[in-house]
């Protein structure tokens, strides 16, 4: 069943997930990653004030929330070295991740039977292995050399390293391209969406999961546990997020990049019992609130035939 995906129609001036405040500037340092707009309002939802060097702003045209300007080193291969992947290797963590990948794969299979699948941002390759074991023909690409090495080792064959828009040697076109929590880390997510669309066969399926800006129950739990709001950007974070999507803005960016038949639903990807419980509450509250409140969302969209 489709989950509610928010309401379209204009840029929200306020919202329970955050609030626009009178801006110290109305012109962004960089174009909006979704629509290219140059006007933005300060978005007050973290401990960072409006005078900070790297602000979180909301595009006045399409409502995407993003970090402006891009902090130096925010997209750095060195951030995704061996230390980044090490926590994933613990046996209990890997078992939980395998269960998560199988759940996601069932959603995918329900929309597009088995076929040729490309996972962009494939990390350590566990999803690719789970998909291959389930009968998919799989390829992967990872911008981190360490991640690509681990994926290659797991699959027993080379995995491409680099930018999907530039790399050669991938088979295709593909029936499915997956982007599991990749878009939020990129300076220009639209470039990756364009490259993914180009790798899909006509009528092929794009799957894109991102954190949800409307994840109110998780943010409330964080405030109770930590005594402060969950920040949208923190310098030195393990996985800095440069764009913050709601169901409305995720739909909009996909529509602008030429995708159709867009379906957005909950991505229940929490691994720890506490986070799974909070997400279960959010999932149950979503129909009552008329919008998705889970910690993450996933879009299924088609390349036009």
Please tell me about this protein's structure.
With 305 residues, the chain is of the alpha/beta class. It has one domain (14-302): Vaccinia Virus protein VP39 (Rossmann fold, 3-Layer(aba) Sandwich). The protein is 30% helix and 22% strand. It has eight helices and 13 strands. The chain has helices at 82-85, 91-111, 126-133, 145-155, 189-199, 216-226, 247-256, 273-289; strands at 14-15, 18-20, 40-44, 55-59, 65-68, 116-120, 137-142, 160-161, 174-180, 200-211, 243-244, 260-266, 296-302. The strands form two sheets. It has a seven-stranded mixed beta sheet, with helices on both faces. The protein has a six-stranded antiparallel beta sheet with strand order 1-2-3-4-5-11, with no helix packed on it. Helix 3 links the parallel strand 6 (116-120) and strand 7. Helix 2 (91-111) crosses helix 3 (126-133) and helix 6 (216-226) crosses helix 8 (273-289). The longest helix is centred in the N-terminal third of the chain and has 21 residues, at 91-111. The model is unreliable at 1-17, 19-24 and 47-51 (pLDDT under 50).
